[in-house]
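Student: Hello, beginner here. Can you help me understand the protein record under this note? Any guidance would be welcome.
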Amino acid sequence: MGGLRRSALVLAAAAVAAFAGPASAAGDLWATVNLCDTAAHPGDIGIRASMPGRPRGTARRMRFRLQYEADGGRWRYVSHADSAWQTLRRARGRPIESGWTFSFGALSNPTRFRGVVRFQWRRGGEVVRRAHRVTEAGHVSTKGADPAGYSAATCEMG
């Protein structure tokens, strides 16, 4: 391979790596149910999410929505269960977490819920990257879990 072509490939790979961040950054992008109708929080469902602190120099936003499992196992969005876009504090290159709690009264039928979190990275008012995650188990959040360390893909209430 010619030197010029090799140099172009190396520069392209470096640019992709700089934008994407380290390989571990993918593990910093997650969503989980960290609260599900407990004695201390009856009727509440908490969704917690994390996003990488890279690329640096971008503003970060998250939007939390809730879905319920309908007949036939299809997931539908819950009306009015939408946090709208939440602007996060500066990440300074580190992963950043945020969360949202949805409150319900007593439900007459058992219902299973899950969260959907959308992520945006913005620079100068323009979206430069987007992602989304459906809640999954196995993520320890920095705060808000009840009980401590709780992480689930779904929450069943009613």
User: Anything to note?
Assistant: The two ends are 64 Å apart (CA to CA). The helical segments are 3-20. Residues 140 and 149 are 6 Å apart (CA to CA). The chain has a mean pLDDT of 85.
